[in-house]
Amino acid sequence: MDALWDSLADYYGDFTAAASEAGLTASQAKALTVLRRGPAAMRSLATTLHCDASNVTGIVDRLESRGLVRREPSPTDRRVKNVVLTDDGVRAVETVRAGMHDTHSALDALAGADRGALHELLRRLFTGPAARSGRGPGTVG
To answer: CA separation (Å) from 76 to 72, 73, 112?
Structure first.
């Protein structure tokens, strides 16, 4: 647990610093990172970010004012607004990820096979049966 905590704290610190360098808060950068996977409804985004829907509204408002995201109606439910990453938003996420120098250095220090093993272990830990059942650490609301 301690090693996992330390690595996550280091990762989050690196992420937060890179976001700040890009002119973003950590919450804004996290929202953009989630949206890399594709458009998301506001409520879904709040669930994924583990925050109240009103907080997501403020985050999205600020990202939208900077042209990093846009809202558009859901194709399946007119009452729902999806948040979509713009091209500028994609570039902002790429800037944050590229700016995570400590994380890149740590991963680059691993041999290719070790990086692959780490990826597989993290995938199993956070998307395995325990996470899907609601009992594991990868459970997302």
So the answer is: 12, 9, 42
